[in-house]
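My current task is to audit a protein record that another person submitted. Alongside the sequence sits a line of tokens, each denoting a local backbone shape. Where you disagree with what is written, explain briefly why. This is what I was given:
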Amino acid sequence: MEKQSVGRVLAAVALTAAAVSAAAVPAAAGQDSVPQCAAGDVSVDRLAEGHSPSPDTSRMFNLVLKGNAGADCVLSGPLLDVRFYDFDGRPVDIPFSSGTVPPPLGIVHMTEGSNAYVYIKAPRTGTGPVHPVARMDFSAPTAPASPMSARWPSYVFGPLAASSVMQGVS
């Protein structure tokens, strides 16, 4: 993955968890007949720390969602109901940076074995507390009744910035 490409993508789609809404985004041309993904259509493949475009100042986490057996649907928009928990299962309050998502939002056609990505950027250091995060819970953007969970790979400082669901960046 080219470092500059990821940086441009994050700069273009940085958003805040407070701006997350369950509003559906219309399907792109040629995808009108493909339904939005529902609970059970996608699951977490992995969440790992990746290569940051600015390694001296930020860290990059990559969440990969995969299409489950029989999936033929679209995902678009930001994750919903994002929550973090420590190693004892207690909620951890990590702020998201403010920002807006410039249109158009990406639409990812999910089929069995296909992937969609969410890139989460965090400061490398911070003036506030370090957050010992063990897990992130969330829902897919088009399936708010589909709670998912991913093991968080390490500590984190806030505020965070997250992309919408998108195709992979190479």
User: Anything to note?
Assistant: Residues 3-13 form the longest helix (11 residues).
